[in-house]
Amino acid sequence: MINVLFIDCCIRGEQSRTKRLAEAFLSALSCREGVLIERLTLMDEPLIPFSNGFFWQRERLLEAGGLDHPRFRYAHQFQQADKIVIAAPFWDLSFPALLKVYIENLCVQGITFDCDEKTGTYGVCQAKKMLFLTTRGGAFENGPLDNGTKYLRDMARFFGIPEFTHIAADGLDLGREPAEAILERAIGRAQEAAKTF
Ligand SMILES: Cc1cc2nc3c(=O)[nH]c(=O)nc-3n(C[C@H](O)[C@H](O)[C@H](O)COP(=O)(O)O)c2cc1C
After folding, report:
1. Residue 127 belongs to a domain with what CATH number?
2. Atom of ligand 1 nearest to the CA of 20
3. Average pLDDT for residues 12-39, to the nearest whole number?
4. How far is CA 97 from the centre of its chain?
């Protein structure tokens, strides 16, 4: 059985175009045998950024080796997944802060990464692949301002995940082409990608 962790950061829920793209991918993926999809809807999680007591609790736990504390459950779940799918819209040249807060909670030495004198920092996640699905109002594909994809690619490397790919419906709100046509094309690419993911 291949365990796929789907991280849903499509904040607009059922109105989200990114969610539509993601559901098309997941539906194609679920047709394959031996694939188990675990969903994590970030909007339903009690995620908070590090601040005050929440930050210091983490420091105390790390010092005491308390990696089994419930606050590290996201890191354990992410570390154990065989494949990772993240869906999030393009917001403010990146992605919603909620996803960054989630990532902040994932980065735990001894669970998702480690370090030693010889190698420096290295990822210890099991996943072999990470896929990022997104939609953008403007056209940023392969441009220097697509900070979201670039950052997630770097994080995949940090976590030790060797393959990172992304699929974007780009330029949806520019009026150069009907948004529906752009989205349908991205959905087609996502369905194709699901066959080999
Ligand atoms: C809060 C917010 C910030 C956004 N920031 C950008 C942006 O920086 N650049 C851009 O081209 N589009 C931006 N957009 C437009 C979205 O990228 C676009 O509408 C996308 O398809 C939204 O995805 P969704 O339907 O999954 O929510 C933004 C939209 C919202 C709601």
Report:
1. 3.40.50.360
2. 26
3. 97
4. 12
